[in-house]
Amino acid sequence: MPKYIEIGRGYAEIFELEQLIQYNKPRIDKAILLTHGETPATFLLIMQPARDHFQAVYTIYKGISMSEPQKKLSLIKSWLKDADIQLVTFDTKHPDEFYEPEQYYQYITGILRLNHLIPNML
Hints:
Elements: E1 2-8, H1 14-23, E2 28-36, E3 39-47, E4 55-64, H2 71-82, E5 87-91, H3 101-114
Parallel strand pairs: 1-4, 2-5
Antiparallel strand pairs: 2-3, 3-4
Pfam family, one: DUF7147
Protein name: DUF7147 domain-containing protein
Domain DUF7147: 3-118
């Protein structure tokens, strides 16, 4: 079962993300960018499932600018390239279409499961 852990909304936590990628490379399963047109995107760093089917998903919720210049996205792509991790991009509903972020994450969980990017429920 994925547990979404918000590390922020795209400010100083971008450097926390760098450390997660650099020091947890063996645990990282996937990196996903969820776009919503030109509005800020959401980034997911999905870790390998741990004990009792717990799976951490670190997020930067609506914190990656998709308008010019895309400095944060360029940094993330370079860190992922250095760690040999492929970035998967999905165009999804905008998070503001949901009453609260938890509902958005449930929607994203369904998309990730349908695309076999996270394990099915047991």
